[in-house]
Design goal:
The structure holds two protein chains of two kinds.
Chain A (H helix, E strand, L loop, with lengths): L2 E12 L2 E12 L3 E5 L6 H8 L7 E6 L2 E2 L4 H5 L2 E4 L11 H11 L4 H14 L15 H13 L5 E5 L7 H15 L3 E5 L3 H7 L2 E6 L2 E6 L1 H6 L9 H16 L2
Parallel strand pairs in A: 3-8, 3-9, 6-7, 7-8
Antiparallel strand pairs in A: 1-2, 1-4, 4-5, 9-10
Helix pairs in contact in A: 3-4
Chain B lengths: L4 H16 L1 H21 L11 H19 L1 H9 L2 H4 L6 H21 L2 H10 L4 H27 L4 H17 L3 H8 L4 H10 L1 H9 L5 H25 L3
Helix pairs in contact in B: 1-6, 2-3, 3-8, 3-9, 4-8, 6-8, 6-13, 8-9, 8-12, 8-13
The chains are: A alpha/beta, B mainly alpha.
């Protein structure tokens, strides 16, 4: 398997505050990485550096073997990105918006309609395609965000809280989708829901105070809880790993 | 993707978005209404007894002085507020193309407003025999003024998420650039600055170049002035986005 996301020793300073402090991450095709951590631990900042939206103070990122600093445009063709909060233009209809992203991503006009159909089908957007985005529920908006990230069928997906705001049925659907795509793509997703990690991720990375404090399979993660803990074992491990770090966080 | 097609994609989305909101209708109505009032009531288009559009062109910069900031304030402040800047700047399109595409869309929209004043032109042409060259020059000069104001506004809009602040700062900045050649401003500098500085201040004045274009004299230095001012502002915008986008 080839390593498609390769981030080494990422560091990001905001003024004097160290948001991310030496994060290295290598992800292969076929891996779904659940990126966990308390609020303010550096998850979003790390993901923003992976996509090149933020420039790291130190460290390098290469995507599909392309250095994002040296050839940003080429590197950007290889990933889809769902930013925090699934932003989109409220006045556009779903169809207009997805067409825009598709064109900007370089999909040929002839293929665009077919791509749009298939993506709308995958995230169940069919009946709202001609509705303006501002009139959609939170769940639909999130799905529009996922649709724009996968419209060009990228080998890499970076998603900041893809299931936030979805109801249990929608969460289930999105997890199914991620699981399917995870067999061929390299996916990094952040989440606060530990059961999600168990459901879709093949690997868990926990970040606290800007540093990686765990990197392994969900099974190993869960096994770190003492046998006396019967329920919510992952929650227990998560608290153990991140409790100290959150206290020193400003 | 071929080079430049990213620019087109951005331009088209942006240009259409003006018409997707009530902004376009409100803007166009206000622009045409005020252009009419200024030309007829205050400029005395009829009373002057001359078939030309001087009274109209004289007021156009003043109209743009607060209407251009209204268009420009959303250019980048809105992208940052919505968070769409994260998607926009991670698309495989060079940032300069995004900046130029958005600017051209705003400029195109302001030129649509200008083009809708064509009935004035038709009217004076029908009433008399105006100097058509001067009218074309007047329209060109007006378009240039709106271009500069929008480029200033686009730059200011990168510095804040707050559209009201973007509007006010842009309006003031445009006002100063526009009036830099007026005696009020120049006299202020003349008191304590060397003649070279005063000339430099007068040199950035939009008004002088606007009037020179209006006279129908298209000089190279005016063209260079407008072209380089817009290019410099767009370059500054590109740098400012890179610098501010993550904050």
């Amino acid at each position: 398997m080839n390593c498609v996301i390769d981030a080494s020793a990422l560091r990001k300073l905001f003024g004097n505050r160290r948001a991310v402090d030496g994060v290295s991450l290598r992800v292969n095709a076929g891996e779904v990485v659940g990126f966990l951590g308390p609020n303010g631990a550096g998850k979003t900042t790390t993901m923003r550096m992976l996509t090149g939206f933020l420039e790291p103070t130190e460290g390098r990122v290469s995507l599909a073997g392309i250095d994002i600093d040296e050839a940003p445009i080429e590197a950007r063709k290889h990933f889809g990105y769902l930013p925090e909060g699934a932003p989109a233009y409220p006045e556009m209809t779903v169809r207009e918006y997805l067409r825009f992203v598709g064109r900007a991503r370089g999909i040929a006009s002839g293929d665009l309609a077919a791509r749009l159909m298939s993506v709308a089908d995958r995230v169940h957007l069919g009946r709202v395609m001609d509705q303006s985005i501002e009139t959609l529920s939170k769940g639909f908006k999130r799905r529009v965000g996922i649709a724009q990230a996968i419209i060009h069928d990228p080998p890499i997906l970076i998603m900041d809280e893809p299931t936030d705001g979805l109801d249990p049925n929608q969460k289930h659907e999105v997890r199914e989708l991620i699981r399917q795509m995870g067999s061929t793509k390299a996916i990094v997703l952040s989440t606060h829901i530990l059961e999600e990690v168990e459901a879709v991720c093949s690997r868990v990375v926990v970040i606290a105070a800007g540093r990686i404090v765990f990197d392994g399979t969900p099974a190993v993660f869960e096994a770190m809880a003492p046998s006396s803990v019967q329920r919510h074992r992952m929650d227990h491990v998560f608290r153990q790993l991140t409790a100290d770090a959150t206290e020193v966080q400003p | 993707m071929t080079s430049g097609s990213g620019l087109r994609v951005i331009f088209l989305r942006e240009f259409k978005s003006y018409f997707a909101t009530p902004l376009a209708a409100v803007f166009l109505v206000v622009f045409l209404f005020l252009a009419g009032i200024f030309s007829f009531s205050m400029g005395g288009l009829y009373e002057r007894g001359q078939a030309d559009l001087r009274s109209f062109f004289q007021f156009v910069p003043w109209l743009y002085l607060f209407l251009a900031p209204a268009i420009a304030m959303r250019l980048w402040a809105e992208e940052r507020r919505l968070g769409t800047i994260e998607i926009l700047t991670t698309l495989p399109i060079p940032l300069w193309q995004t900046v130029v595409g958005k600017f051209l869309a705003a400029w195109g929209f302001s030129c649509v407003a200008l083009a809708l004043t064509a009935p004035l032109w038709i009217t004076v042409s029908w009433l008399g025999d105006p100097d058509q060259g001067a009218i074309v020059a007047g329209y060109a000069a007006s378009a240039m003024v709106s271009g500069i104001f929008l480029a200033i506004g686009g730059f200011v809009s990168t510095l804040t998420k707050n559209q009201v602040i973007a509007f006010v700062v842009t309006a003031v900045a445009c006002f100063l650039v526009f009036l830099a050649g007026y005696p009020v401003v120049l006299d202020f500098f003349r008191g304590w600055m060397s003649a070279g500085v005063v000339d430099a201040v007068a040199g950035v004045s939009l008004l002088a170049h606007f009037q020179s274009l209006m006279r129908g004299v298209v000089e190279l230095r005016d063209a260079v002035y407008f072209g380089s001012a817009i290019a410099a502002l767009l370059a500054a915008t590109t740098l400012a986005i890179d610098w501010k986008k993550g904050t």
